[in-house]
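Course assignment 3, question 2. Fill in each field.
Student: A.L.
Task: Predict the tertiary structure for the chain below.
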Amino acid sequence: MLTGKQRAYLRAIANRTEALYICGKGGISENLIKTFSDGLESREIIKITVLETCPDTPREVCAALCEALSADPVQVIGRKIVLYRESRDNRKIELPK
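Answer field:
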């Protein structure tokens, strides 16, 4: 679980990054979960765009992905989702206490 200070730090990092991943009309599939998991392992923080054609709302997608990926939600703004999960092998982000 992230503290408010850690979440603010991660939001600042996410603000400078582009959304590299898209959740579209197919919704959340096993292949999509694998792709997001690989992205979290390599980057620790990812930004996802939820398209209008997605059957779920961005908040529903965020909740489902957090559960499936064991990730922490950083923010949901409009159709953008930011997720964080500490990497097992290559930690890059040092969170404040």
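Instructor remarks: The longest strand covers residues 45-50. Residues 24 and 79 are 11 Å apart (CA to CA).
Grade: pending
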